[in-house]
């Protein structure tokens, strides 16, 4: 099917987003063209600003506007606990339940023996460095309940435990294979409360 070049490019851009096939991309592109000028401008501005104004916190790896991030610099947070997650969106999920008051560490992925992703390729080294000479007493591993999430948890436990720091894992209230991002607040809250030492 022939489309004028500008819309073909827009379809191409939308189809680069996860979970968006050609058909949905085409629908979104045509929808965008029908939008008010003001809304399209705002959309474009938000896309650019999200990319330009956000960076990763140099301490915890979370997405932030200022480095270090608001959580790392918050004097009221408990500095003896670090909760390790796969992605920044998992920090948001945890913050929503408002029960956890410690710090975070974002791995930006998982170790994946199947896909050849080694610990060096995710944000592990900075976690280990962070734990040296710190007041951290417990590391809670909240990687997803997938085989890669488990492999990552086991690897981290092996690395961290010799330093005399307690390592725990979220309790199995979460369904196997599930992402903590999609867990409801009660389930997540229970999973933190009933965490188990590994
Ligand atoms: Zn931070």
UniProtKB/TrEMBL annotation:
The keyword Zinc applies. Residues 80-175 form the Toprim domain. One of its GO terms (biological process) is DNA recombination. InterPro entries: DNA_Rcmb_RecR, Rcmb_RecR, Rcmb_RecR_Znf, TOPRIM_dom, TOPRIM_RecR. This is Recombination protein RecR. It comes from the Bacteria. PROSITE patterns: RECR, TOPRIM. A zinc finger (C4-type) spans 57-72. Belongs to the RecR family. Keywords: DNA damage, DNA recombination, DNA repair, Metal-binding, Zinc, Zinc-finger. May play a role in DNA repair. It seems to be involved in an RecBC-independent recombinational process of DNA repair. It may act with RecF and RecO. Signal peptide: none annotated. Gene3D superfamilies: 3.30.60.80, 3.40.1360.10, 6.10.250.240, RecR Domain 1. GO terms for molecular function: DNA binding; zinc ion binding. Pfam families: RecR_C (PF21175), RecR_HhH (PF21176), RecR_ZnF (PF02132), Toprim_4 (PF13662). SMART domains: TOPRIM (SM00493).
């Amino acid at each position: 099917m022939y489309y004028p070049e500008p819309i073909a490019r827009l379809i191409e851009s939308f189809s680069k987003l996860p979970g968006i096939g050609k058909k949905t991309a085409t629908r979104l592109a045509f929808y965008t063209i029908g939008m008010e000028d003001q809304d399209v401008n705002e959309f474009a501005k938000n896309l650019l600003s999200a990319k330009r104004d956000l960076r990763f916190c140099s301490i915890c790896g979370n997405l932030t506007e200022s480095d270090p991030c608001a959580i790392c610099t918050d004097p009221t947070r408990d500095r003896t606990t670090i909760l390790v997650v796969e992605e920044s969106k998992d920090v948001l999920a945890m913050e929503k339940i408002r029960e956890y008051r410690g710090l975070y560490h974002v791995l930006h992925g998982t170790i994946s023996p199947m896909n050849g992703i080694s610990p060096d390729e995710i944000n592990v080294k900075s976690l280990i460095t962070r734990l040296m000479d710190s007041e951290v007493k417990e590391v809670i591993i909240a990687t997803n309940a997938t085989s890669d999430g488990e492999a990552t948890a086991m690897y981290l436990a092996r690395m961290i435990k010799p330093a005399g720091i307690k390592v725990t894992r979220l309790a199995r209230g979460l369904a196997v294979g599930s992402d903590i991002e999609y867990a409801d607040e009660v389930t997540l809250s229970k999973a933190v409360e009933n965490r188990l030492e590994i």
